[in-house]
Fold each of these.
Amino acid sequence: MTKFIKKILFFISIGILIGELITRIFVLTSDIPERYIDQNGIQKYIPNQNGQWIGGEHSWQINKTGWPGPLPKEYKNLITIVGDSYIENFMNPDSCHQGVLLKDKLPEYNFFEASRSGVSLIEAMEITRELDSLNPIQQLIYLGESDFKQSILQIKKHSDITQLDIKKEKVIKGLIKGSFLKKILYNFKFAYYLFNKISAKNTHSKAIAIPKKDIPKNDIKLYHKLLDYIKRNYNTTKVIYIIKPKTPKYITSLLQQLNYNYLVLDSSNDSSWSFDFDAHWTCYGHEKVAQQIADSNIFID
C-alpha cells in the first residue's frame, strides 16, 4: 500500500512539474505585479516590475513611480490620466496606452498615467490629490457606472477598494486582500492557471444566473451625495471626467447638475472597441478613445 501511494505521489509530482513547464513556456497565464500601500493609503505596484501578458505576445512594465506604463520625458504642460484596469491596460502593449496615444496626437502636452485595477471614483480623487504635486494643468479620470457604485460603502462594502462612508463622510482606504495566497499562486504558475480557469467558470455561471436590474432610486441619491462630497473636499477645477461608452445617462445628468467637467465617449455602431471575450478596450478602442479626447478641445492652458 505504501509503495502504491508513493507511486501515485510520484506521478502527481511529475504531472505538476510538466504542467508548470508547459504553463511557463507557452505563457498560459499572465504575470501579475505585486502591490503595496503608500503613505497616503493608495494602493500602488512595487516599482520597476515587469512581466508577460497571457500568450507572451507582449509584456507590461511598472515604472519607478509604481504605476503601469512608460513615464513622460518632460513634465511641463502635464496632463495626468487616472483610471482602473481600462487605463492600466495590461492586455495591450505600451504603444496602446492612453498617454502614448494622446502624446502622439497632442505633442504640445505631456501625459502621466496613474492606474490600477479596482480604482474607484473616490480613490481616483485621492490619486489626483497626490498628483497635484506634479503641477498638472489638467487631470483626466476615466469612469464607468461601477466606479461610482464601488465608491459607496452603503451600497456594498469592499474591504480591498477605497470607499466613502456617506453617513460619516469618511473615506475608508482599501486593503490589499489575500496578498500571501496571491504571491504563492503568482509564483506557482500551473496552480494559478488552474485557479483562473475555475474562477472564470464560476464567474460565467453567476453572470448568466443574475438578471439585469434597474438602478435603485436610492443608489442615485447616494451617487449625488458622493459627487457633492467630492465637490466639497477635493480640488475639481482641473479635473475632467472621461465617461466610458454606455454609461447610463443619469450619471451625466448628475455631473451636469453639479457643474462637473466631463466628456462622454461614444462607441456606437463600433464593436471593435472591446475584445470579443472581454469588455476592456483593444488597441483600436484605445486609439478611438484618444482621438475623441484630442478632438474635443477640452484642455485649457
Amino acid sequence: MTSTFVFVQIHDEPAVNLLSSLREIFKGRQSKSPIHITVRGPHKHVPSQNRLGRLWDQLDGEGLLIHGIGTFDFPEKSIVYIKSNSKAIRKIWWKRDYPIIRFGFNPHISLFEGTKENALEVAEFLKSQKIELYCRDLSLTLYQTFSDDLFDSPSNTLIHRSSRIKGDVLVEPYRWKDGAVERARLLARALNL
C-alpha cells in the first residue's frame, strides 16, 4: 500500500543545513525525508498534476517564516518541532488524520522524537537558540511511502520550485545563536540520544 503526502520542501541552504543538523543530532541518525512541512495527506490516490498546479499557484513567490518551538505529547512519546507561518500554506492545508476543525492549524518541522523528559530538555534548548528563518526557496513535492519490501525507502518527487520572489529580501533572513549546532551535540550526549 502506498501513502502519498504533499510537502512544501525548503531549499534555502542556511536553513536546511541548520535544521538538518539539529534533526540528525537529536534523532541520532540522518532522516529519510528532506526539511519540509507536510501540508496535505495522506492521500488515498496521487493528486492530479492539475490539482498540484493549483496548489502551487497559491505558494509560488511566497515566503515562509520558521520560528518558535512547540511540542506534541502522546502517551508513548513526545515530539519537538519548530513552528512555521504562511498564509499561503493555510490556503492549501488538508490533513486527513488531523482535521483542522479538531486539531487546528499547526504547520511545523519535527526535530526530535522521544521521551517527554528529553523532549522538555530539547525544547528548552531550542528556544534558547533564538532560531528565526525566513525561507523563500521552496518547492512542492510528492512524498510517497511504500509497504512493499521492494521499496525500502520513500520516494520524493519535486513538482514545482520557486522561480520568482515577491517583495524585498530581508537583510538577515536566517538568524540563530552562534554555536547552536555544537551546543546541540553536547546536549544530545548529555541526554544519551
Amino acid sequence: MDTLVERAVAGALRDGGDEAVRLYVAACAERMAPLFVGLRAGVPGREADLDFYVESVRDLWYADRPLAHAAERVRLLERFPELQPNEEGITDVADTYAFLAALCLRYALLAHGSGNADDAESCGHAVLTSVGMLDRNVAGAGFLADEQRLQSLLLSDDISGLWDASVTAGRERLRAVLGHLPGR
C-alpha cells in the first residue's frame, strides 16, 4: 500500500504558495480531530489538551495568514503524552490513532506557521497512514481512497465543500475506530 502523498498534490503544495499549504494542513487536521478528541474525551486530566487541540484546528482554517505563535503551539503539543517517547511503543488501538492525530496536528502547526511544503507533506502522510490502517482493519473500507480524493481537492479550483467534507470524513473515521476498540 502506498501511503505517500500523491506527486500531483506534493507539487501543488510546493507551487501553490503559503496559503495552499495552510489550507491543505487545516483540512488534514480537521479530518484527524475527531480521532484525537473522540479517543481522549473523558480521560482524566486531558481537558486542557482537548481544548488546545480543538482551538488549534479551528485556528488553522485562517489560511490567509500564518498562525500566531505556531512554534509555541508546537512546543505545547509536544508535551502531550502521545508524543512522548515510550520504551514499549504503541500497541493500543486508541493510542495509535491518538498518536497519529497528534502527529498530524504537529506537522500542521509547523507548516501553517512556515508555509513549508515538506511539513505539509508529513502532515498528509500521518493522515494517509491512519486511514491505511483503517482500511486494513475494516472490511470493505475505502478510507484511503477517500483521503487521497480529499487531499487532491487542493488541485481543484473549487474547494467550497472542503471543510464540510473534512468534518464528515473525520466523523466516519472515528466511528470506524470506535467499532474496533476492545469491549465495544
Amino acid sequence: MARLSIFAVCLISAFVFNFAQCKESIDSNIEVQFVQSLADFLAKNPGVKLEPLTTEVKLDGPSTRTQIVHRLGNRISGDRILATDSASQQWQKPHDIRLNLNYPQSGYGSVITYLEVIVEQSSSLSNAYVVSGGIGQRQISVVVESKDTLYFKHRAAIYGY
C-alpha cells in the first residue's frame, strides 16, 4: 500500500511539474503601425536572414472572418507545449499591424520543435517570419505582419522538449 501511495504522489508531482511548465507565456506585443516593407527591413538589418513560416489561409464561409495558420517545424514524439500567448484587438478603420513573438521571455528555454500562430482577421494579407533562433534551438523570435484588417486575434503555441 505504501508503494502505491508513493507512486501516486510521484505521478501527481510529475503532472503538476509539467503543467506548471506549460504555463510559460511568450513575450509578445502588437504594434499598430504602418508595417515597413520587407525590403526596407532587410536593408536596415543586413545580417538578418528571414525564414518564412508556412501559411495556410482558411476562409470562414460568407463571413468576413479569415483564419490564417502560420507553422514552422513538426511535432515530435515526447514534445510538449513550452509556451502560449493570445490577444485580440479591433479598430473602426483598417490597420496594418506587426506582432512580435519572443520565446523565452529572457535567457534560454527548452529546445523548440514546432511553432504555430493562428491569426483571425478581416483580410487575408498576412506573413510570418523567423527573425532569430528557430527549430532545434532554445530561443526564437517571430514577426507576424497583417495588413488592412479591422480586427486581429492571435493564438500562438510553441512546442519542444
